[in-house]
UniProtKB/TrEMBL annotation:
Tagged with keyword Translocase: no
Record-given protein name: CDP-alcohol phosphatidyltransferase family protein
Alphabetical UniProt keywords: Membrane, Transferase, Transmembrane, Transmembrane helix
Entry annotated with the keyword Protein transport: no
Pfam families, A to Z: CDP-OH_P_transf
TM stretches of this protein: 38-71, 91-109, 115-136, 203-226, 232-253
Superkingdom assignment: Bacteria
Similarity comment: Belongs to the CDP-alcohol phosphatidyltransferase class-I family.
Length: 255
């Protein structure tokens, strides 16, 4: 199932792994492998990337970061081709992402001797960037009856879907709110009327997709292999300013 109608599909710079992810999902469609298994796969890939960063194996780290991004797309694709969406998978994916992101930045801080406060602020910036992208993207998908496991406002625990346990949904949703609640509230406070505005144009969504996790990891991978490890955390800290640029554009032209 496509998330958007043809005329509203934009070039998603964070979603470069989607073609390979679709191949993986179709290959696993009639197997016992579940989307959760694929999510575990991207967690393992992320941990291998962290190990390689600490050991200064930067090409290998870049490889595992890209594989992580591909598998991160593949779990959702597999859920769609098997027609088995789940809140368990949706929240496990998000919880795993934020924990891995923290470890990515800690490992980069460790090898680059960057100030710990820059590391902390850059991580906060990274998460706010990703939250804005997801906020606008979910709003866009909901306008066109996209997948139902992603919601504009994550205010209450959803009811488990067929094939999953409510207890698992409760636990993972609680962890999601713990880790993402402050970021969600911050972005909502900055642009609370985004869901009432007009449909965002494709060029703006493409620009905001630079905040997507896949593109963020690609930037980290590229900077590692280019010998720019000391610039990674300052880059994400400074790039956070673009949040206000994108929100400003939406408020000015797409109310």
């Amino acid at each position: 199932m496509s998330k958007l109608p043809k005329e509203n599909k934009f070039i998603d710079l964070s979603d470069y792994g989607r073609p390979v992810a679709k191949v993986i999902a179709n290959a696993l469609k009639n197997t016992a492998v579940t989307p959760i298994h694929v999510t575990i796969g991207f967690i393992i890939s992320g941990l291998l990337a962290i190990y390689c960063i600490i050991k200064c194996y930067y090409w290998l780290a870049a490889f595992f970061l890209v594989i992580k991004s591909i598998l991160d797309a593949a779990d959702g694709e597999l859920a769609r081709v098997k027609q088995k969406p789940s809140y368990t998978g949706r929240y496990l994916d998000s919880v795993a992402d934020i924990l891995l992101n923290a470890l990515f930045f800690i490992s980069i801080w460790y090898i680059s001797n960057t100030n710990i406060w820059i590391c902390l602020l850059a991580f906060i910036g990274l998460q706010l960037q990703g939250t804005l992208y997801n906020y606008y993207y979910v709003i866009l998908r909901n306008k066109f009856h996209g997948d139902t496991t992603s919601r504009v406002f994550e205010n209450k625990t959803p009811l488990a879907l067929e094939g999953e346990k409510q207890q698992h949904v409760n636990i993972l949703f609680g962890l999601y709110k713990l880790f993402y609640g402050a970021f969600d509230k911050t972005i909502y406070a900055l642009d609370s009327n985004a869901n009432k505005g007009t449909v965002l144009p494709n060029w703006l969504m493409t620009s905001v997709s630079t905040f997507g996790l896949g593109f963020q990891l690609l930037i980290i991978a590229a900077m590692l292999v280019l010998g720019l490890k000391a610039s990674i955390l300052p880059f994400f800290l400074v790039y956070t300013v673009m949040i206000f640029v994108f929100i400003g554009i939406r408020k000015l032209f797409y109310q």
